[in-house]
């Protein structure tokens, strides 16, 4: 048993670009390897969109901010958005024409459906050989689970025994993901939903998780689903929210509360992801542009 | 043990008894100088007598009566020793204040709080601050960082190290006249080099590392801080048998206390919080249950008060309960050295 020499590894963790320069710069280069990052938002904010984009950008060479790797997409929300992935992969391919040649980027995305938390745990235990496969030209370096909340929000009752079983599963799943992330240098992304916050503002001091004063999405006060045990299970948390304000140009607003500290940053980003994704934004008014507010909370402060 | 059984010369024994030293335990707290004065003998001779006395008291300790326990210390000595020990600053003046100057060596300190409150940040900060050279009020030691959650990031540690170094240089500038000789030759990378990092992926590994620490520290005596981030994570999965978990945890706690004492280093344990259901409502509690709360000497809880982070001393044998804001903004508190990287809009 020997301590790791921190100077022998590169002084910054490898990151996977999310395909948006502004968001990347706030994340310090993208989604970090060796840890578990959570994407939280209400539906329709672009979680799945961002995930699909990640699956593609992970294939970019390291020089372009990718991981030069295949990826594994585990989905519990149905159906799998294969048509959207096709569209994205098409535009991805045309923006990097010399990288892919005749290869279809979709060939390097493995997709698996899960229906229960136990099944997810079972799959995670079975993919070790797949992750360890070094013969593969592009080994798997990215696991995306979309979404973790769907697995846990239906199956469990609000009884002490069920809650105990639920939190034990949280820790098992996250323990497995973290050890795989460490062992194989993976970037792990899980998505989560939000719940409305019904506690009065002064009564929630102890329960406040995260370092933003409050998280608003669509004008409602929300907080990430699955409670405090799950919040212990992720390394970084990225909060996306939508804000139905009408502004002059198509921009998104990203709130970055970074580093477990009290630094908050806001940046407006053009949401390229939104182009052609109009059906993903059903509340959009005709002719008006939409402003997305994305808030991130990153626990490491690497940004 | 009676004085008659002490293997010293008859004349010395007579002198001892006539001066009132009738039992071995009466010799236990006397200094050679006092003894020489009382018995009107030379210092050397008194010293010899005390040596013989302490030796035979150790041999006779099996019979139990009046034995001088080996290794026992008077509270007075302990007080002196404690005053000499440096404390590890948390880089936050208010927090240092309620902690009585910082994290104490020879003690196990537990820090708990909700996710995102800054436990890992504090852990990294302490691992850096323990390395501040002695000339600048630090300990000049090394740190062991046991990461069970994977939240430790090298770039963050480097940022903290840089900020700490800047503070040292600033300090150096202000008291240059006093310490003209010692120039800081440290680089931020040196801080990382002196951090022994263990990444742990299961509870059995965690126990193994803690068992191994004693050997490791006896080879690296300049380790002055052990940080475990967090003790909880692997103990919240896979345990059907809670009694086993309690036994493992208390065994671990004992080892950590022993380490802290033996090598006079600071052990900092980070803990998570959990919701506890009692009497029809949910409360927030530090994880690992009631028996674990005995395991640490000090307990500090970080919590949100509005939009500010506060620390609260929950348990301590020497400090009074108090709370103070932590991680305050730099503008408000110029001494605050938690450099914020991304504060601007």
Automatic annotation (TrEMBL), chain A:
GO biological process: double-strand break repair via synthesis-dependent strand annealing; resolution of mitotic recombination intermediates; t-circle formation; telomere maintenance via recombination
Region called Disordered, residue ranges: 273-303
Keywords assigned by UniProt, alphabetized: ATP-binding, DNA damage, DNA repair, Nucleotide-binding, Nucleus
Domain RecA family profile: 12-194
Any Gene Ontology CC annotation: Rad51C-XRCC3 complex
Gene Ontology terms for molecular function: ATP binding; ATP-dependent DNA damage sensor activity; four-way junction DNA binding
CDD domains: XRCC3
Protein name: RecA family profile 1 domain-containing protein
Source organism of the structure: Nyssa sinensis
From TrEMBL, chain B:
GO molecular function term, any single one: ATP-dependent DNA damage sensor activity
Matching InterPro entries: DNA_recomb/repair_RecA-like, HR_Repair_Mediator, P-loop_NTPase, Rad51_C, RecA_ATP-bd
Main location: nucleus
Keyword Nucleotide-binding annotated: yes
Subcellular location per the Swiss-Prot or TrEMBL entry: Nucleus
Keyword Iron-sulfur among record annotations: no
Keyword field: ATP-binding, DNA damage, DNA recombination, DNA repair, DNA-binding, Nucleotide-binding, Nucleus
RecA family profile domain boundaries: 84-273
Organism superkingdom: Eukaryota
Pfam family, one: Rad51
Gene Ontology biological-process annotations: meiotic DNA recombinase assembly; reciprocal meiotic recombination
GO cellular component terms given for this protein: Rad51B-Rad51C-Rad51D-XRCC2 complex; Rad51C-XRCC3 complex; replication fork
Family statement drawn from the similarity comment of this UniProt entry: Belongs to the RecA family. RAD51 subfamily.
Function of the protein: Involved in the homologous recombination repair (HRR) pathway of double-stranded DNA breaks arising during DNA replication or induced by DNA-damaging agents.
UniProt name for this protein: DNA repair protein RAD51 homolog 3
Species annotation: Nyssa sinensis
Lineage: Eukaryota, Viridiplantae, Streptophyta, Embryophyta, Tracheophyta
